Amino acid sequence: MRLMLGKDNKPSLLVTVTQEKSPTEFDFEVINGRWDGTFYNGYVTVWGCPSGDFSSLEKVEILTNNQDRLRCRWTSDYQEVFNNWDNPNYVAPLYTYNREFVDMDDDIPF
Prior knowledge:
Elements: E1 2-7, E2 10-22, E3 25-30, E4 36-40, E5 43-47, E6 54-55, E7 61-64, H1 67-70, H2 78-83
Antiparallel strand pairs: 1-2, 1-7, 2-3, 3-4, 4-5, 5-6
């Protein structure tokens, strides 16, 4: 499940919940960053950030858990979610994967 974290309706972290401990405590991976964290009653602890681990002193909120608004195909597409944040009617496109299929009829018996 994805969540948007921020404050005053200003998004700052698009995250994927990796382990939910309670509605107010969960571990997550940051989609728009390269680190993990823990959310606990509005406070974030950062794990694995290049500048080191630390806990925030500023409280943040869960702005939305609407998966239609938070969907993006690749982690590099997350900017689309932020760009459309001010449009409450925004629905991210459903993505389909275009894969080239290799013809496996190579006459080798198995």
